[in-house]
């Protein structure tokens, strides 16, 4: 199973990918998480990417394509994978095609813009394993620490109102065209993400197993 999770910032890509990854026993590959790790470790890629992430802009295609090529060549990807946050531009999607990777399904989670701000301002993320929570909608049973690995939960630096606005605008101009791109290939599934976590999960499973 090779899946792509498509959707606006805060649509629930990471949250649903985490659940699907457990269900299908395949890894989730989040370019956002890989880049945040590189920034934390102050690698050359992290230093290059920091300004883009802080401004809510996309990191240049060649950098992200390089990251994905390397990650997909690892052993745990042989049985399938879930791409969360890649591709995000048409050139990135074309690069994936040129690697000869055949994607089975592209899940587009659709959420209204006004809900996005509420979701991102209440989001908390595990500082170690990256698991995602929400202070109201999906709190950790352990409070301020992660249910999975007991590391502290943090607020992402790009989850502030100004950067969220910029990320949404970038999504509409640069990523939304991928919906038509994959629709024309015939493997796009649309799931309504405006409901609860469970309702969104059920909509995805219904679409995947139809
Ligand atoms: P990335 O980390 O991918 O961020 P994003 O696309 O902005 O998406 P988010 O992670 O913010 O949202 P999500 O859809 O995963 O939602 P979540 O499940 O967390 O990328 C960050 C940055 O890295 C980019 O801005 C860019 O600079 C760079 N980058 C990454 N990939 C790139 C690429 N390919 N090319 C170039 N640059 C790249 O949910 C959000 C919150 O809502 C959570 O708190 C969750 O608990 C809650 N929630 C989720 N679903 C529901 C629901 N149904 N009901 C109620 N609450 C819900
Ligand atoms: Mg995410």
Key terms:
single chain; 210 residues; alpha/beta; five-stranded parallel beta sheet; three-stranded antiparallel beta sheet; 8 strands; 48% helix; globular; binds BIS(adenosine)-5'-pentaphosphate; binds magnesium ion
* Euclidean distance between termini CA atoms: 15 Å
Task: Characterize the overall form.
Answer: globular
- Uncertain stretches: none
- Say which molecules are bound, naming each kind only once: BIS(adenosine)-5'-pentaphosphate, magnesium ion
Q: Could you give the order of strands across the largest sheet?
A: 2-3-1-4-8
Number of helices: 9
Main beta-sheet annotation: 5 strands, parallel
- What string gives the helices and strands in order? EHEHHHEHEHEEEHHEH
Give the strand content.
Answer: 15-25%
DSSP helix fraction: 40-55%
The count of β-strands is 8
Mean pLDDT: 96
Describe the oligomeric state of these chains in a short phrase.
single chain
Task: Tell me the structural class.
Answer: alpha/beta
Supply Rg. 16 Å
Characterise this structure.
The chain has 210 residues and is α/β, with parallel strands linked by helices. 48% of the residues lie in helices and 16% in strands. It is built from nine helices and eight strands. It has a five-stranded parallel sheet with strand order 2-3-1-4-8, sandwiched between helices. Strands 6-5-7 form a three-stranded antiparallel sheet. A hairpin with a 5-residue loop joins strand 5 (123-126) and strand 6. Helix 2 (31-40) crosses helix 3 and helix 4 runs parallel beside helix 5 (90-98). It is globular, with a radius of gyration of 16 Å. The mean pLDDT is 96. Bound molecules: BIS(adenosine)-5'-pentaphosphate and magnesium ion.
């Amino acid at each position: 199973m090779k899946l792509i999770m498509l959707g606006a910032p805060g649509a629930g890509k990471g949250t649903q990918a985490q659940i699907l990854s457990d269900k299908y026993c395949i890894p989730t590959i989040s370019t956002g998480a890989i880049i945040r790790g590189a920034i934390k470790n102050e690698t050359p890629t992290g230093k290059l990417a920091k300004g883009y992430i802080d401004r809510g802009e996309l990191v240049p295609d060649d950098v992200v394509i390089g990251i994905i090529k390397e990650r997909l060549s690892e052993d745990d990807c042989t049985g399938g994978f879930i791409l969360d946050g890649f591709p995000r531009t048409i050139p990135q999607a074309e690069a994936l095609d040129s690697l000869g990777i055949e994607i089975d399904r592209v899940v587009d989670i659709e959420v209204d813009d006004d809900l996005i701000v509420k979701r991102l301002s209440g989001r908390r993320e595990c500082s170690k394993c990256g698991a995602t929570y929400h202070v109201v909608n999906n709190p950790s049973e352990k409070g301020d620490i992660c249910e999975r690995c007991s590391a502290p939960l943090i607020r992402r630096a790009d989850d502030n109102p100004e950067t969220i606005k910029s990320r949404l605008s970038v999504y509409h101009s640069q990523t939304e065209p991928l919906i038509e791109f994959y629709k024309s290939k015939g493997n796009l599934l649309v799931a309504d993400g405006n409901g609860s976590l469970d309702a969104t999960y059920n909509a995805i499973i219904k679409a995947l197993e139809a």
